[in-house]
Specification:
The structure holds two protein chains of two kinds. Chain A is mostly beta strands. Chain A has strands spanning 4-7, 10-13, 19-25, 31-37, 43-49, 56-57, 68-72, 75-80, 89-96, 103-105, 109-113. Chain A contains no helices and eleven strands. The chains are: A mainly beta, B mainly beta.
Chain lengths: 114, 112
Amino acid sequence: SAVISQKPSRDICQRGTSLTIQCQVDSQVTMMFWYRQQPGQSLTLIATANQGSEATYESGFVIDKFPISRPNLTFSTLTVSNMSPEDSSIYLCSVVGQPNTEAFFGQGTRLTVV
Amino acid sequence: DQQVKQNSPSLSVQEGRISILNCDYTNSMFDYFLWYKKYPAEGPTFLISISSIKDKNEDGRFTVFLNKSAKHLSLHIVPSQPGDSAVYFCAASKDNFNKFYFGSGTKLNVKP
């Protein structure tokens, strides 16, 4: 299993500003992902964080809005840019270790944009 | 278009009885299915999984059933305990488990 530390755990931000969320894993992992859970909704994959290269974004998500960094195999950041109240969600970092195994999740970052 | 659906947003069960949580999917390419449990202010924690080559997987009080022809899976919890009260998400993946598609969750309340 992997232990994932996500910071901050929650934040309240002004619209128009940006927030960077950090994800630290206690071991090297191949696959790291960022999810969003809007109120009452399912977890939606934002992007795959690729080590050493640009992230792979899902339909409906773009790099300008959600820039992602992954400088090594244990760390990634997600920035929510130019925030609006619609960005209020829980953002979750996730990792997958070996094939044929489950994904592990951080505790999430609860973001409220006012 | 949501590929994994949980049509029951909530379920209430008496302690000691069986809890049955249901999940439907639309993509026949999914080959790995999982259930996660989530408490408030915590990330989802893995509960149990099943490969598409099986129709049942059991782990203690938890059993997952897969009906591929109906594109349906269910999670059975027997006996249910108050500590099982949480939101349960089903998830599915394909493509070597790189992406997981989640349902919207079912909130289970186990009454003492």
